[in-house]
Amino acid sequence: MGAYILRRLLLVIPTLLGILIINFALIQFVPGGPVEQVLAQLEGEGNVFGGIDGSGGDAGIETEAADESVGRRGLPDDFIAELEKEFGFDKPPLERFLNMLWNYVRFDFGESYFRSISVVDLVKEKLPVSISLGLWSTLIAYLISIPLGIRKAVRDGSRFDTWTSGAIIVGYAIPGFLFAILLLVLFAGGSYYKVFPLRGLTSDNFEDLTAIGKVADYFWHITLPVLASSISGFATLTLLTKNSFLDEIKKQYVTTAKAKGLSEKKVLYGHVFRNAMLIVIAGFPSVFIGIFFGSSLIIETIFSLDGLGRMGFEAAVARDYPVIFGTLFVFGIVGLVVGILSDLMYVFVDPRIDFERRG
Length: 359
Prior knowledge:
about 0% strand; globular; mainly alpha
């Protein structure tokens, strides 16, 4: 098993390298780089974040270097050349990519173009929000899907199974962002009830609250985002649980246990449950990473949560390349590590699985 883990860890390096190469190459063809963003601001066409939050606020770039009249007539070439040098675009793409790789090897991810803060500090600040959202969403999905899947397996073919399957299909067909907007309209003061806050992870007076008040305030804010993001893994997990239990119920040992006079509940939870839940429990890392990747961007943007997904979106709009690549690097690392943990989880819950022999 140790050799298998070592191979998987070594595969992380070329995989991350491939991610960086593909995205670096794509960015070379995307119009409107950071230099163009600065020029647009200096010429009075708005700042790099104006299109995101509508505030038109300061993007952290000093504009006093060029007055309004110069901006209207066009900026001088030497000023533009100085901007390109400042952002590193005076070098050819290959040299810039190799420099970036060398910095990444030394764990130097650079500094944001527009926020005057290192990428590492930005990721450390935003990552807990995304992980928190992913963990709670995964937990809610499991708490609902497992009992429902067991119930559907026990009552397979009944009206309960049919109606719940229809509801699951409808829920699965609804995009996460549409469900999020529906929740906002219904329960966040849209057109009906104002039960939950519209945006953010905490209230303005969060620091003044007691310990219990802070916990309550946190869960009050995160309820709608968690519900919106957990719907993506809800249907798959429910059907996986149902099918896993159905496969076990049809096996010979279940018939033997019933023939010995054991009650249905004893057979179900004393024998079937332990075997059927292996694949469901082992899939926890995969479900988490699916929710983490699939929901963080849209859900964080809709609910104005200051997480990694929203930061990556803002960086992409602003062409903040160090933040873009730093975010991709973190997402790649998390995805690859969780993939390894998922394999280890299978071995943990079922020692009969041997990846080393399979290899």
